[in-house]
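Exercise 3.2. Students should predict the tertiary structure of the chain below and write it as structure tokens, then compare their answer with the key that follows.

Predict this chain's 3D structure.
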Amino acid sequence: MLYLCILFIPPVYFVSRDKWGAFALNAFLYGLACLCVLSIMGIMVAPIFWILSVGHAGFHFRREMINKHAELIATKIAAQMRANQDPPGMPPRISK
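Answer key:
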């Protein structure tokens, strides 16, 4: 559902994430694309603005997913490191 939102109405993605600066830029690009579609002469230019709008939303979505993935990996590694720690008073283990 989020992919469809990004593909067809990208400004709504930023509203749902409360990113108002990115929303303003994306709404401007998407608005230009819509205005170009309404005019006969600008219909050839409209896909450029639409692609810029979708690319902007897609870039932010991908960056958000990468950050979530990195946090998940960091949490798992931290838990694994805590589990592998020696109890206090024990000599360090020697790995072979």
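Discussion points: The CA atoms of residues 50 and 88 lie 60 Å apart. The chain has a mean pLDDT of 90.
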